[in-house]
């Protein structure tokens, strides 16, 4: 199957079938790509689900680039999107472009940044440099301090107006798609209808052009699963059971068994005589 590009994603506008999922390393990128997703987001959720930080603020640009490289080495068919972390684009257009270029050199085929019309100039500058940009409005976790926590957006008229303005500003700046996080489903539907670019929902209902979830939420590995995520398997329990079985077998002398002892001597040896010989040589 051919490599997914931003033009392919654009052609999926109106289908409601775009599938995006996060991945942060080579093996998981291979697995999710084999499952047929359209986009792999190397998300700044890396901070919490992999590196153990309490918020996304802890992850650095260097962290994100290293994990983007790991995902890119899987050579996925899916489009690889690098998530620009807190502090990598806010202060100037030139810094934003430098950070985006670093993502492309790491193997990303597009970048994502959070924020609305206040960051439209950043999007425009990055796109001008030849790099596709995915926008992100609604709940923007990098700005949770500004909003007093991880609260839904777009429930009041003033917020709805601002979300519409933000969406249109990002589209006009050249974004090829837009994530809408944790808003009322009706608002996400309205934005989706108004925009010509695809929308990707997370916690914002069915009426976007696609959906995205954090892989660790899907697999049941997250410590704190958001209310809008769905756990498709309890992999945490499966892993714990497997490791527990391994530990028990080691302690009971059941592992490794004969079938796991694969190195064989090439010729018969009297090991006791060998030990005596070594002992005699060392004594001299």
Q: Descriptors for this entry?
A:
284 residues; alpha/beta; TIM Barrel; 2 domains; eight-stranded parallel beta barrel; 13% strand; elongated
Could you please describe the fold and organization of this structure?
Helix 2 crosses helix 4, helix 4 packs parallel to helix 5 and helix 6 packs parallel to helix 8. 42% of the residues lie in helices and 13% in strands. The mean pLDDT is 96. Helix 9 links the parallel strand 6 and strand 7. The longest helix is centred in the middle third of the chain and has 17 residues. The protein starts with 5 loop residues before the first helix and ends with a helix. With 284 residues, the chain is an alpha/beta fold.
CATH architecture tag of the largest domain: Alpha-Beta Barrel
Calculate the terminal CA-CA distance, rounded to whole Å.
69 Å
> What's the Cα radius of gyration?
25 Å
- Please name the CATH topology of the largest domain: TIM Barrel
Strand order, main sheet: write it out: 1-2-3-4-5-6-7-8
How much helix, percentage-wise, in residues?
40-55%
Percent strand? 5-15%
What's the total number of strands? Answer: 8
Shape type: elongated
- Ranges where pLDDT stays below 50 over 5 or more residues in a row are none
Mean pLDDT: 96
- CATH class identity of the largest domain: Alpha Beta
Task: Please work out how many helical segments DSSP would assign.
Answer: 12
CATH homologous superfamily classification of the largest domain: Phosphoenolpyruvate-binding domains
Whole-number total of structural domains: 2
The biggest beta sheet, please? 8 strands, parallel, barrel
H and E order:
HEHEHHEHEHEHHEHEEHHH
Briefly note the structural class of the backbone. Answer: alpha/beta
